[in-house]
Amino acid sequence: MDRKAPACQPTIPLTWITRAHSFRWNPARWLTGYPGPFIAGSPCSGRLPLRPSDPTPCLYPMSALVDPVQPLLKAHRRLASDLADLCLEVNHEVYLVGGSVRDAILGRPVRDLDLTLAADGLALGRKLADRLRCPFVPLDDTDRTGRVVLRRRFTIDISSFKGDSLEADLRKRDFTINAMAVRLADLLAGRPSIIDPLGGKGDLAAKRLKAVSEASFRDDPLRVLRAFRLAGQFGLDITPRTQTWIAACDEDLRRVSGERLLYELSLIMGRRRTSDRVSAMIRSGVFGSLFPGWMESLSASAKTSSATSPSTSPSRRLERTDRLIARDVFLEDQGLYTHLTGYEAKMAGDRTSLWILRFASLLLCGIRAGGAAGGTAGGAAGGTAGGADPTLDRVEGAAGGADASADSTLDRVEGAADRLRLSKRERQALHQLVFGAVRLLEGAATREPDDEALCRILRGSKDDIPGAALLALAHGPDEGSAAGGRIAKAARRLLWLYARHRSLRAKGLMLNGADIMNDLGLAEGPEVGRLLDKLETIQTIHDIRTREQARKLLYGDAAYGLAGAESA
Q1: CA 277 to CA 284: how far, in whole Å?
Q2: Following CA atoms 505, 506, 509, 510 in sequence, which dihedral angle do they give, to the nearest 10 degrees?
Q3: Does 9 have pLDDT greater than 50?
Q4: What is the pLDDT of residues 38-78, one digit of tens each?
Q5: Domains of the chain with CATH codes
Q6: What does pTM read for this prediction?
């Protein structure tokens, strides 16, 4: 049962303490937090009478700041004592700063301890690592920053002040919620107080994201993306003044390296329910700056389509992508959800496949807004796409070859992959997701694609068929329309064929290349490969039980003893 803290004085209401923070009452264990220039205190400060103009103080148990750090401090048996010795060596001028303080205030576990001090952070970090016998990674020789790597992926970053004092260091940080500090010695002693010269605590309580200064973005334009990431992660609203500074960073954003851009974008798009933040980035024109030449029109498209045709706006498509990824029970998934488990696995480093799936959805929005499609093009089913549902865009040519629209789409996919320095696996997945979705949308533009057309999509997108089907469902028209119904039905059939194809890969084909060469008297060459592809399609579509049945259907006489596969 939750307990209420006893009222030590009547002028300040005490907050409820959850069971996680319940402890024996001790006035010395309380920290009074006033949103303002400096947040610190004791029970004595809490007894001062409140003026009408004073902000309502927030009372925090000391453990609320100490507890989130405990798992990290216990990651090494000598860590707490060695950190205390480090504090003594620099006259206690070591501070916990940045996201570590923010997370502790929010009660989130702190896995990365960010420390700053007036001395040489690189040298002291190496000394601490030697004492703990842990790996040490130099990060920045200019800022004298190094990282101590503990077990269970806990880390400690130690840096020198960016400036001649702690306050100067805090004023050089990105956002006010990251510009707070706690003296490390006080934290280890269990009596922390928050040093907050810029009012970050108040901004955090008010759900505001405020940049420290315009120079924050000039010094590091990547902080523009970090603003949207933090806003989405903690449910914050970016202040109007900060938005103005972001809008002025157009040219600076173009110079951000691909590796750093990839890191931030993968963090933004790897989280749950990111469509709101990505849509805000679209409206702000950020993507036009990051991908110049073809994403500029996306911002205008987002504004006009949201007003004139909300069902086809980028925001709606991104939202549906999020809902399908989250396995929303209120959406008809066409058998998709059972195939999405693999997208939670890591693809490159710490990046999962989910981020590349969301980025592919964003790319599709940009391709459609940029007018990559146009004219009459044959769909993947082999028919013409002219006169199709107007909500579908013409982005793919005939199944046998790409036209100018497909070339433009390919250029944009490859351009995005080059800009982000994607790994080989991520680049391949992005290509397969985008073109798989495009071919499925085009294939169902005017009529239901047949199984052979779906098998061509299957061969092209391989293991990314579930993601391609998800994107087609997210970017296609509503199921109430004729085209939407065809896309939904085609997606279901494609997923059914995908499941059969996976089973077929495990069992193997009825005939191999040597069998085909012996049967037809062929030499090794592309014709044998073409026949093997055809056999794979036949066995995916039909229930083939014997090698003789496979031969009859592969070489001719398709009616020989074959039972067509039942509809999905």
Answers
A1: 11
A2: -160
A3: no
A4: 333 333 333 333 334 333 334 455 567 888 999 999 888 89
A5: 3-61 (no CATH), 66-208 (3.30.460.10), 209-290 (1.10.110.30), 292-489 (no CATH), 508-564 (no CATH)
A6: 0.78
